[in-house]
Amino acid sequence: MAQLKVTLIHSVAHRLPKQRKIVEALGLHRVNSTVLQPDNEATRGALFQVAHLIKVEEVK
């Protein structure tokens, strides 16, 4: 299964509480922090909600 490399590129300060919780649930804490997440529908849905704050790359 492929994985997604997710990087936080914008701060979550002054964002909606729901967006802050999604970013925290993804394991991102500070700007430029990066995590690997599985490529599944649940992850894709979370990434779609905060797409303006992150950068996503596919890792094989």
From TrEMBL:
<dbReference type="GO" id="GO:0005840">
    <property type="term" value="C:ribosome"/>
</dbReference>
<comment type="similarity">
    <text>Belongs to the universal ribosomal protein uL30 family.</text>
</comment>
<keyword id="KW-0687">Ribonucleoprotein</keyword>
<feature type="domain" description="Large ribosomal subunit protein uL30-like ferredoxin-like fold">
    <location>
        <begin position="4"/>
        <end position="54"/>
    </location>
</feature>
<dbReference type="InterPro" id="IPR005996">
    <property type="entry name" value="Ribosomal_uL30_bac-type"/>
</dbReference>
<comment type="subunit">
    <text>Part of the 50S ribosomal subunit.</text>
</comment>
<dbReference type="InterPro" id="IPR036919">
    <property type="entry name" value="Ribo_uL30_ferredoxin-like_sf"/>
</dbReference>
<dbReference type="Pfam" id="PF00327">
    <property type="entry name" value="Ribosomal_L30"/>
</dbReference>
<keyword id="KW-0689">Ribosomal protein</keyword>
<dbReference type="InterPro" id="IPR016082">
    <property type="entry name" value="Ribosomal_uL30_ferredoxin-like"/>
</dbReference>
<protein>
    <recommendedName>
        <fullName>Large ribosomal subunit protein uL30</fullName>
    </recommendedName>
</protein>
